[in-house]
Amino acid sequence: MENTNIKEGIILIPDFSGFTEFVFNTKLYTGEYIVRQLLSTLIDMNNEYFEISEIEGDAILFYRYDKNPSYKKISGMLRSMLNAFTRKVEELSKSLSTAIDLSLKFIVHYGKFSQYKIGNFQKLYGKPIVEAHQMLKNGLAEYPSYVLFSNSFLENSQNEEDEFNEEKKRHPEVGVIHYFENQRDSIIF
């Protein structure tokens, strides 16, 4: 059986760091409101560039079929998403008079995957989807607020990697982690 629905594309997963502790230490209604606001902010900053496959708790599975992904465009979008996320955290912290100890990490991966439909849902299928989820639990990052560009993405993108001036750490078996502005404790732009 041949699947003509297999295409090359980008997998992007923004994920909150500190989410489990946040859920356990925040009232149900307040936590749900904060998470909904933060996820909505990320979706709005996407500007419909990526499609949404799933929203899973504190993470969004974005994808885009693209044979020539642009490192510069993706890195600029991630910076915009992080800035909007940071502003929203500050706004919500102030308006709700509560500390919101969440940061943001991004996984950017590339490969061949397919899509199928179950009821009203579109599901992605393929090795890159599993790999991207595995990268979320990487143990490689030294501090929060980073993007992990997989080797697969870097090898297939129009790679202007020096566009990111932040500290970076290369992991030959996985890819490159770029930290945003050396912000280990708090994110303030």
UniProtKB/TrEMBL annotation:
A Pfam family matched in the record: DUF2652
Domain of life per record: Bacteria
UniProt name for this protein: DUF2652 domain-containing protein
Species annotation: Chryseobacterium arachidis
Lineage: Bacteria, Pseudomonadati, Bacteroidota, Flavobacteriia, Flavobacteriales
